Amino acid sequence: MRGIVVKLGLVLVALLILLSSGTVVTATPPTQAGEYSSDDFAYESKCRQCHAIIYADWEGTMHFNAYLDPFYLEEVDAASEDTDGALDEFCSRCHTPIGVVSGEIPPIDGSEMSDIAKLGVQCDFCHVVSESNGTGNAPFTVTPGDTKWGPLDDARGNYHESEYLELFTQSEYCGMCHQVVNPVNGLVIDDTYSTWKDSQYAEDDVVCQDCHMTEGITDFEANPGRAASGAPKRDHISSHDIVGANTLIPPMFGAESVAEMAIERLQKATTMELSAPETASIGDEVTIDVSITNSGAGHNIPTGVSEIREMWLELTVTDANGDIIYNAGSLDANGNIIDAKMLYNNVLADSEGEETKSFWLAESVLEDNRIAPKETATEQHSFVMPENAAYPLTVQSTLKYRSAPQDMIESLLGDEIEVPVVDMNEISAIIYDPSTPADERTQPESDSTSTPGFGAFAAAMVLGITMYILKRK
Predict the structure, then answer these.
(1) Are 40 and 220 in contact (CB under 8 A)?
(2) Which of 40, 122, 221, 407 could form a disulfide with 215 if both were Cys (CB 3.0 to 4.6 A apart)?
């Protein structure tokens, strides 16, 4: 009975999304579960024969691993158990779309899935999307066959027919999956598309593809090349890395380069300003303000399943002897965040009003502390200058990010996995003794810093994912 209610909810929520978004609904309904066979789709091995560069971009990304992602597999198992399987098709529609339209999901354990269905958001699936019934909860229509759709209006293929579809040039293509609404109660879980839609980026006609399918990190940068072997050279070919901010999963599959692109994207998403007094006397109350501006992301930061994302500010004040005078936002030995002023994420609540990180149980939003596009959040920190402080004092403020809490990943995947923490941005200042002459006081230039490579993380993750896979088998 619960499953029937959820499916009715899916229909009603889809209608509400379409009505509220103002999106024109096409005449063709979304493709339903079991409408096709997995044999109707082509393996990526055929695609890579002509599209080798594009294939190399896609391999190892989160789209490539949308189904194989071990965090997703554990979460969808839990969601299935908690809802008696009612959300199996709902979750899988974006993570293994071929598995859904071919009727291989459910069962959620993947026991009836073909190899091609396990390839996640795969080449032939994306390019046989022929229509969309709006945004949110994957309202795609697919038409498997000899015709492949894409963003080029003059493409000619020898192996298959090529057709231009304007949808491939619009954010609405991405918004089919990157806008998620709880099918039972209508609570928005992932608002990546809608926060873009409400931003200055949408007003300026800057679409998702301009940042996520180019050589630029936070704006458009042309990527000259050929869409296929033998095809004409073009001023721009869409890059299929389509990297977001996930630094946890790609290294598990040996794709350290994907994680490093995610780091670069994170490090160009914000700008920071720090206000601190130039001098302070013993016993003075010192106040420090740090402002964080979402200057480079066309959606809220963090985004996606933002109830588990963690973005926070670490602020440390040390004296000339290296003694810590003040600290907020450091990690303890177990990877827990200590005394951070704010955790920039979305806080969901269950039916009892208690915080939950299981979005399928969420019924309301307790807090939304994310930073919207072009907006600024400011934190204020204060401390009293101690008598034994050795001048000058250094104020170091670092904006940090990780894909999920350490304890959550350990509970799901085992304690062999260490969640990478990325330094998104950092800024510093110096506080002097008031007796220090003004011409001897200097302040550091503010600048973003790069994050060390993934060598240490990679080895641990490879071991961890191997043990995890063996455990699941």
Answers:
(1) no
(2) 221
